Amino acid sequence: MRICAIHQPQFMPWLGYLDKIRRADVFVFLDNVQFKKNEFQNRNRILVQGVSQWLTVPVRFAFGDTLREVRLPEDTRWKKKMWQTVSQHYTKAPFFKEYAEGFRDFLFRDWPDLAACNQASVEWLMACFGIDTERVTCSELPSFTEERTGRLVEICRHLNADTYLSGAGAREYLALRAFEEAGVRVIFQAFRHPVYPQLSPIKNAPFVPFLSALDALFNCGGGFLNLYSTNPS
Description:
Layout: E1 3-7, H1 15-22, E2 26-29, E3 43-48, E4 51-56, H2 77-90, H3 96-107, H4 114-128, E5 134-137, H5 148-158, E6 163-166, H6 176-181, E7 185-188, H7 213-220
Parallel strand pairs: 1-2, 1-6, 2-5, 6-7
Antiparallel strand pairs: 3-4
Helix pairs in contact: 2-3, 3-4
């Protein structure tokens, strides 16, 4: 069995995104799809004073631009502000010092577009969490159909994958018959968000889930994901 997972590159994504990658044999960065404002393509959340807060990459785009066409500003003040925010609120986290330099090195690099920035953020997190799944960038592959399910099927077949690992939320729109007709089995991710020790200035603060994986990395270290074994269905 060869499992393929496919997803748009997100900025510093959550643990479930990384869990999907580590359960696949090959992961495809779907970098040539349309940018969607106010989603997770150019932002994610961290914990600030015990409250979820957005960490945003400013972008320049026109309606209809793909992730590869979205540009980042040349002015680097946003990078300095992001670094200050992250370092200020995680400096006392148990593993911040171990990973702070790597995060800062990533942040202050120059990126040609949002897709490249996001993919690099994912690959840095993969390295931190010890995930060595093969990865492929969709724009470097042959052209595929624009139809949503058909494109996924064609990518799987091109990569010789007989199984597609999908997020649970895709049950509502995937045309499963198209996979069946192509001889590709579909399994759905069953990730259950773990609760872990979370740095907060608020005494007995409730756990805040669905943050960027930066939160788990700085609080629990790179071996954290290996402690949890949720399985696709």
